[in-house]
Structure formats: structure tokens, C-alpha cells
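Lecture notes, part 5. Sequence design as translation. It can be helpful to think of inverse folding as translation between two languages: the language of shapes and the language of residues. The source text, in C-alpha cells, appears below.
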């Protein structure tokens, strides 16, 4: 990856590029913006630029991507780059020889390694360990220790902290101390999609760089270039339902490619989604819909369930447009005009904000590996309440 490979975020990239070439980087940044907008990939690219063996050229155009330093960063093996995110406390026991080999620790280590592997395949992923208690004090102590050494080579140490809103209170205090007297040779990059939850004392020590949602046209251009073999229909579907979240888009493309393009059927998934909604809303069929979620989650993989929920989001969007404007006809689902109009008649003025929030929350649960059947049942009940008919 190089500056040119960053999708969208032209302004943010040019700000950083200028700061690098004029040697005016802040000592700490907070990259803030919605999930899946490429904040962490920009952080890693900046780390590569500052350590690339093609120093001067890299500052102008971006990292070379092939020197040893660039490759080590891509493989999460560079000694001067620290990547910190919320982990399970069991992982820390690797430092304790008596506990290092116990099952809890080795299992946690496996989960950690598999997250890093996922992150290599999908640079837009925000890693999260389910049993994590947040960013732990020991992780920040390790940073303090590493900060006290000079970088091994000519470059700069870069500490990338993902999800600083999840810093454990005593970890936050220690980080604050580091940020108050930052060593010259360390660059801190905090990356958050919930910057309002980052401690104000920490926030005020960082220069905030805001990231915006990826535009559909940027996503379209990138998919054309990166995945020229993607079917048009699938590409449209991915652009629509990822809604500017690159992490979702990349996951979708990967799962299409792993499963073979023909196994991903956007329309079929959308139809099961509308069918699910129909059951939820029919009188006396809620119980059936809820018990059907078990089967739905057995028959569909994680990405398909996300696609299913996302297509409901697009369906609600169509209904919203049609509710406001009866002549609206740029539908996401042009083949469902009849169904959309029936919905508008039967459910006048639903709370669209609540509907989309509920759907987005369900998507996030699935992304975080919450049990899909449970997530879908809870979602079904919520839809029923929101659309107010029994
Ligand atoms: Zn390089």
C-alpha cells in the first residue's frame, strides 16, 4: 500500500504528506471518524513512510512497499512499530513461565494470532477480542519501556493505538504521562471511531484528524481497480450495503472470492431478508419468525447474515424516500416497488432513525461474533415494537 492506494481521504492524506515533507508532524494524532473509513490503514502507511528505506522518495509519494522495513510493517513484525488494541488479560500471562503454557493462555494466543491474520487480509478491520477488558495497563507499561529506547534504524518509532476509548483507567493515566512528555523519536497515533468517548485529557494532547465516510464513487473506482473480475451486480450490491465501510466491503469481496462468485447471490439474500421482515410484521407470526432465526443462521454464513441485514437497511431507505416523496423512483430495489408501496400504506410514518439504528446495531453484533440466532431474534422483536402492530 502507498499513499495512492488509500481509498478516499484525499485531504487527510495530503495534510499528513505535507507534514512529513516539511518535517512538521505532530507528536501525537487522533484519527477520528466512522468505522471502516481507513483510519488504521492511513496510520500504518504513515508508519511505513517514516521508516521506508527509500526515505526521501517515500516522503514525497508514499512508501515503496517492498523494502525490508515496509514488508516487516505489513507483517506486523517491525521492531519499532507497536500496534495496541484491546486484548484478553490471559495473553499477558505469556510473560509468566508458570502460566505461559496453560490452556487459557495458549487459546488466547491463538485468538490473537488469528485476529492479526484477519487484519493482514483486511487492513480496514478494527480488531476486537471478545473477552477483552480493554487496553490494559501492562500494554501501556510495555509502550513506556519501548519508548525509552531509540529506534533501531534511521526511522521513527510509531505507536498505533486502536480504540483508545477502551483504555483501562490506569492505562489511560500512564498513556497521558507519555503524551505529556513525548519522546522526540516516537509518534503516537490514536485511532477511534468513538472519539467523544476518549478521555478529554488524552484528546487534548493529540492533533485530531477527522476522517469521512468513503463515497460510493471512490468505492466503485477502487473495486474496479482492485477486483476487476467482480460481477457488476455484486459490485453494486457491495457498494450499496457496505455504506462507505471499507471493512465490510473487503470482507464481502473476500467471502465472495473464497466461496466462488456464484455462491454469493445478492438478490436471493435480499429476498430472504424481505421475507423475514414480512413474517415479523404479519399478525401472529412473530413467534414463527423468531424460531426461524435459528434456521436462518444455520443456513447462512456471517457475511450473508450481514448482507441480509444490510439489504433490510436499503429496503427501509427505499420506504423512507417513498414516504417523503410519492414520485421518488431511484430505488435501491426497483423490482420491489409494489412491496415498498404496500409497506408505506400499512406502516405510515415509522421511526426510520430507530429502524436504521436497530439494524446497524444488529450488524455490529454479527460482526463481533455475537450469536447470530440470538441477535436476529432480538432484532425481530425490536422491529415488531418499532413498527407497532401486534
Ligand atoms: Zn519501503
Amino acid at each position: 500500500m502507498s499513499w495512492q492506494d488509500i481509498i478516499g481521504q484525499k485531504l487527510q492524506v495530503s495534510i499528513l504528506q505535507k507534514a512529513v515533507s516539511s518535517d512538521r508532524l505532530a507528536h501525537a494524532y487522533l484519527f477520528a471518524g466512522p468505522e471502516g473509513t481507513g483510519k488504521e490503514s492511513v496510520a500504518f502507511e504513515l508508519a511505513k513512510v517514516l521508516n521506508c528505506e527509500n526515505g526521501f522518495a517515500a516522503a514525497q509519494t508514499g512508501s515503496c512497499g517492498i523494502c525490508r522495513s515496509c514488508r516487516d510493517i505489513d507483517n506486523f513484525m517491525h521492531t519499532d512499530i507497536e500496534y495496541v488494541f484491546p486484548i484478553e488479560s490471559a495473553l499477558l500471562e505469556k510473560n509468566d513461565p508458570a502460566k505461559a503454557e496453560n490452556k487459557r493462555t495458549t487459546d488466547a494466543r491463538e485468538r490473537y494470532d488469528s485476529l492479526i491474520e484477519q487484519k493482514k487480509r483486511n487492513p480496514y478491520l478494527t480488531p476486537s477480542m471478545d473477552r477483552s477488558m480493554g487496553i490494559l495497563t501492562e500494554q501501556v507499561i510495555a509502550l513506556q519501556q519501548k519508548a525509552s529506547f531509540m529506534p533501531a534504524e534511521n526511522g521513527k518509532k510509531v505507536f498505533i493505538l486502536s480504540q483508545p476509548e477502551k483504555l483501562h483507567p490506569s492505562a489511560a493515566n500512564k498513556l497521558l504521562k507519555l503524551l505529556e512528555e513525548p519522546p522526540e523519536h516516537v509518534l503516537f497515533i490514536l485511532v477511534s471511531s468513538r472519539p467523544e468517548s476518549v478521555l478529554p485529557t488524552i484528546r487534548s494532547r493529540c492533533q485530531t484528524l477527522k476522517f469521512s465516510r468513503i463515497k460510493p464513487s471512490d468505492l466503485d473506482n477502487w473495486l474496479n481497480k482492485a477486483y476487476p473480475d467482480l460481477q457488476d451486480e455484486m459490485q453494486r450490491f457491495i457498494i450499496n450495503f457496505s455504506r462507505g465501510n471499507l471493512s465490510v466491503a473487503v470482507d464481502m469481496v473476500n467471502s465472495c472470492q473464497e466461496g466462488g462468485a456464484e455462491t454469493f447471490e445478492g438478490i436471493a439474500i435480499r429476498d430472504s431478508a424481505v421475507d423475514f421482515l414480512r413474517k415479523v410484521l404479519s399478525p401472529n407470526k412473530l413467534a414463527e419468525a423468531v424460531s426461524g432465526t435459528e434456521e436462518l443462521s444455520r443456513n447462512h454464513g456471517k457475511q450473508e447474515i450481514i448482507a441480509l441485514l444490510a439489504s433490510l437497511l436499503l429496503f427501509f431507505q427505499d420506504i423512507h424516500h417513498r414516504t417523503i416523496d410519492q414520485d421518488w423512483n431511484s430505488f435501491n430495489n426497483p423490482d420491489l416497488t409494489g412491496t415498498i408501496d404496500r409497506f408505506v400504506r400499512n406502516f405510515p410514518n415509522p421511526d426510520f432513525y430507530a429502524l436504521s439504528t436497530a439494524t446497524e446495531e444488529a450488524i455490529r453484533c454479527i460482526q463481533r461474533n455475537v450469536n447470530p440466532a440470538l441477535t436476529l431474534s432480538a432484532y425481530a422483536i425490536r422491529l415488531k415494537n418499532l413498527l407497532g402492530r401486534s
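The translated text above is only one of many valid answers, since several sequences can fold into similar shapes. The beta strands are 28-32, 81-84, 157-162, 186-192, 207-210.
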